[in-house]
Amino acid sequence: MVNRRFGNPTSGRYTAGTDVLRLLASAAGAVQSQTAESGRELERVEAAAEEEVRNRSEQLMQLAEHYLPAISRDSVSGAFAEVRGQLQNVLRRKQQAEEDLQRRWDTALDRRQQLQTELDQVTGELDALVARRDELEEQLANRLEEDDPFQDLSRQALRTEQELERNLARVEESKQEAADKLPAYKRSRLFQ
After folding, report:
1. How many CB atoms lie within 10 A of CB 108?
2. Which residues is 122 bridged to in the sheet?
């Protein structure tokens, strides 16, 4: 795995490339979560405003039916004029909440775009490093393949490892044989 370090070499403070990628992904997730929460908050505000308008309209109709013996369009509109200011305040608060949520939404989108750009840049750098690593590994493999002393040492190491495995197997066999013969040895009067 490539672990490039980013930072200021004079200060001695570095951050691993994987850490940067993880931080960017975490920040992008946080921005998406904040964006979703802003959308839900906007829906709640709109629903509350609509409910308040509905409740006020119902109350207005109840008041009109109670206090106005003859209900007509004119009498209801006159009563409506009395609460119009309150309804306008509700509407103004709703619009302010929508504007605030829109600003937060725009900020979250800008931050998300910035993080995506940084993530793309870091990903490009990581891809370039992986390609360079693969190229170096291939060059090293080719050089080692052409290096006769190295090939001789590799073959010798392989033979030595195989011999070591055989010797270890013999030691295990000897231990097992000794364990099998030990009880008979201990029971023999001749050896005791």
Report:
1. 20
2. none
DSSP readout, 79-140?
HHHHHHHHHHHHHHHHHHHHHHHHHHHHHHHHHHHHHHHHHHHHHHHHHHHHHHHHHHHHHH
| Highest mean pLDDT pick, 47-56, 134-143, 183-192 | 134-143
Residue 128's pLDDT is what?
93
Residue of higher predicted confidence among 13 and 88: 88
Q: How far apart are CA 146 and CA 138, in angstroms?
A: 12
Q: Please say whether the beta carbons of 39 and 126 come within 8 A.
A: no
Q: What is the pLDDT of residue 138?
A: 93
User: Is 50 exceeded by the pLDDT of residue 4?
Assistant: no
User: Phi and psi dihedrals of 190, rounded to 5?
Assistant: -65, -45
Residue 35's closest CA among 119, 114, 108? 108
Residues in CB range of 86: below 8 A, 6 or more apart: 56
* Amino acid letter, residue 185: Y
